[in-house]
Amino acid sequence: MGKAVTGLNKPNETNNFYPADDKWDLVEMPVIVSTVIEEGSAMSIEISSNNVTWYITKSGVENAAGSDFVGILAEPIIATDDDYATAGKLKWVWIPRSIYAEAFFTVGAGTFTAVDVFKAVEIHSDSYWLAVDTIWKGARISWYISSTRWRCIFNLPTTETA
To answer: For 61, phi and psi rounded to 5 degrees?
Structure first.
């Protein structure tokens, strides 16, 4: 039996990203990291020496290089996993079916206000939320809920390699 994952439209136990509508598919994806990653982390294509490896990793690691958002990690990666240090280990990831798929997120640092709706910002370096006062690369804020809760779409960017 596989590990339990958070169901669609059901809040997970983290304050990180999670799907906000039915435009997401749950898929097993190959992950390259050998580090603990929380459920709800934004995941992107790994870029190594200007090459795409076809593995995914935390978005905050790759987002500065402009790598594409792939999905939201639907299960935690923990040091006690049997496959913890295995390159290409398969983990469950929520993959958007549409460029309009929305995700919830929590503001982790700084302040977004209602005027930030439609602003495009970077995924924070820890991959758990969006970075305040940044531009482009990452996600577009789509809906104001409260000063700490928002919705976004990940229709940005396209992969940029040298």
So the answer is: -70, -40
